[in-house]
Amino acid sequence: MDWIRLTKSGKDLTGLKGRLIEVTEEELKKHNKKDDCWICIRGFVYNVSPYMEYHPGGEDELMRAAGSDGTELFDQVHRWVNYESMLKECLVGRMAIKPAVLKDYREEEKKVLNGMLPKSQVTDTLAKEGPSYPSYDWFQTDSLVTIAIYTKQKDINLDSIIVDHQNDSFRAETIIKDCLYLIHIGLSHEVQEDFSVRVVESVGKIEIVLQKKENTSWDFLGHPLKNHNSLIPRKDTGLYYRKCQLISKEDVTHDTRLFCLMLPPSTHLQVPIGQHVYLKLPITGTEIVKPYTPVSGSLLSEFKEPVLPNNKYIYFLIKIYPTGLFTPELDRLQIGDFVSVSSPEGNFKISKFQELEDLFLLAAGTGFTPMVKILNYALTDIPSLRKVKLMFFNKTEDDIIWRSQLEKLAFKDKRLDVEFVLSAPISEWNGKQGHISPALLSEFLKRNLDKSKVLVCICGPVPFTEQGVRLLHDLNFSKNEIHSFTA
């Protein structure tokens, strides 16, 4: 049996029965034997024991990275290999962020704070290919402290900055292209929970305004914590979590719920379109994480009046699997309980929408979730758009998420066409039937004009997405015209 056949056999290759976990350095080090070998590559941990006998370089080569971070070794030997696809069935989880060790850095602050990013903290690759060095400064009034971040980029917006502060710990992550600029400080004085963030897009400046608890003058901002004032490739950063409170839960279909989580007042987080976060829950003594794409509260504004400001809560459409490990536990949460939510991840760029004329969306089941924000954005913020077409695959009519809203939105905006395709419909169903196929796609994917700029987004179970991408290539859509969502 070759490796590809083994990965498709349904055998549990991780030994974790489908769970994804956060892996500490201490835990990773324990798995350093041939029959129990975990390796970390770019922050993701894989159980490569089942792959040992299939590795072209032999077992000894893999064992060089056993129980450790093998990213550098991997890049030296075969950086070109698509390990994410090859080892996806071996994925154990992500590396956990180590807690910061607090020190008194008052003297060091004079060297590090309020200045340019030290070159020693930027890799040669970033210096040559990445963005210009960001920097930051701070100033104060009697009642306020303002931290100003100078990104030196003009494509910065409120989605680009994530702020968390608890007690005296202040953390601001700024997404700059494919890098993350981190400000991480133990503040010298206490501040209020509430704060404001504003962005001057024309110059790439971010201002975070904190309210002092006492109207006294600060001699210094604080002491640097782990990775403070560093510019790091996003692929090399661990996930940071904050606890969010469940404030509502409602049925959408017979097995899908709409969860609403409220961010802490001390957090600013807006998940960019097309990106996902990880939800984390403690289950049977282990912290389990699962990726989910946030959605809007509804497709139509009149469906729901938000009870909180838009930037303070996050919605998720989640299918509950009765025999699953994570979703039944999530479904058992009571209003007021807490769920840990990570910072966002994903490689979708909103620049793909520039001058877009035709947008095609292919979704299966809860693969519809990334399409929600894309639909809202496309119909309101892309002036060049001529047509949006959604083909939504489900098993039965009862499985269709937000069918009524989709139909009302299509009636309201004539640029939108929605087609439902069912694989197991009742005899009275008059719509399309079957699975994703050349016949369905060739009829559906017709450009408005021969040379119009087009984008096809696809999301669903892995077999659906892989088959769909192959069919799109067969229909002569280029790689740049296709975006597949995977987590």
TrEMBL record:
Its EC number is 1.6.2.2. The keyword Plastid does not apply. Its main location: endoplasmic reticulum. SMART domains: Cyt-b5 (SM01117). Residues 20-96 form the Cytochrome b5 heme-binding domain. One of its GO terms (molecular function) is cytochrome-b5 reductase activity, acting on NADH. Keywords: Endoplasmic reticulum, FAD, Flavoprotein, Heme, Iron, Metal-binding, NAD, Oxidoreductase. It holds the Pfam family NAD_binding_1. Its cofactor is FAD. InterPro entries: Cbr1-like_FAD-bd_dom, CS_dom, Cyt_B5-like_heme/steroid-bd, Cyt_B5-like_heme/steroid_sf, Cyt_B5_heme-BS, Cytochrome_b5/Flavoprotein_Rdt, FAD-bd_FR_type, FNR_nucleotide-bd. It comes from the Eukaryota. Residues 131-222 form the CS domain. It is an enzyme of class 1 (oxidoreductase). It is found in: Endoplasmic reticulum. Residues 239-351 form the FAD-binding FR-type domain. It catalyses: 2 Fe(III)-[cytochrome b5] + NADH = 2 Fe(II)-[cytochrome b5] + NAD(+) + H(+). GO terms for cellular component: endoplasmic reticulum. PANTHER family: CYTOCHROME B5 REDUCTASE 4 (PTHR46237:SF1), CYTOCHROME B5 REDUCTASE 4 FAMILY MEMBER (PTHR46237). Belongs to the cytochrome b5 family. Belongs to the flavoprotein pyridine nucleotide cytochrome reductase family. This is Cytochrome b5 reductase 4. It comes from Homo sapiens.
